[in-house]
């Protein structure tokens, strides 16, 4: 029996693909890389998204720098999407991209209600955004892109593959990957020269936030997770979520 080619099932399968993940991430990539250059023009201290710094530092080992690194990121992402989907027929629909962003808006609000409420109930405080609005907007978009690439695609995706090979139950493998990935995602914010001083409320907030994004990534793919993360952060720093 052939699979349906229209409706929610077709939309779900298409937008969960690597192709839609790559294409939907391109606007975030262009926005962040443009905004962060402008932010740092007159900055006394350079600001960057830590996950983006890690990726670019790794690419400098190839001898690349500046614009070549950005080109390698785009070409590498496109090549990875092609290789992962080369045996699939992925329909490119404008309404699917619109639906992906709209779906991410809904998830961003739901995550805010669930995670922020939980942390607020536990600690009577939610970590506030720090820094100028334009800087926070740039970092919000960059976090949605680079943190999802590192912590969802590479970390949680890698853990899920590893645990599926070691465990009989795929659902248990996904749960373990999501939980461990959330711990590592939260803990990474306190490591290295760009890390913050450890605080239990912010660690708990990021653990729960990371766990929610892990579930989204495993269920809906990279594109939805990246846009949900970016839109959530933008809503927070602009006050749209209170």
Output the keywords.
242 residues; mainly alpha; globular
Q: What can you see in these coordinates?
A:
The chain is mainly alpha-helical and 242 residues long. The chain is built from nine helices and no strands. Helix 3 (50-60) packs across helix 6 (133-166), helix 6 (133-166) packs antiparallel against helix 9 (222-237) and helix 8 (200-220) packs antiparallel against helix 9. The protein is globular, with a radius of gyration of 18 Å. It starts with 6 loop residues before the first helix and ends in a 5-residue tail after the last helix. The mean pLDDT is 89.
> How would you describe the shape?
globular
Number of domain modules: 1
- Please state the CA-atom Rg, rounded to the nearest Å: 18 Å
Q: Which sequence of SSEs, written as H and E, runs from N to C?
A: HHHHHHHHH
What summary fits the major beta sheet?
none
Structural class: mainly alpha
Secondary-structure topology with pairs:
Layout: H1 7-15, H2 18-39, H3 50-60, H4 67-85, H5 94-123, H6 133-166, H7 170-188, H8 200-220, H9 222-237
In short:
The chain has 242 residues and is an all-alpha fold. It has helices at 7-15, 18-39, 50-60, 67-85, 94-123, 133-166, 170-188, 200-220, 222-237.
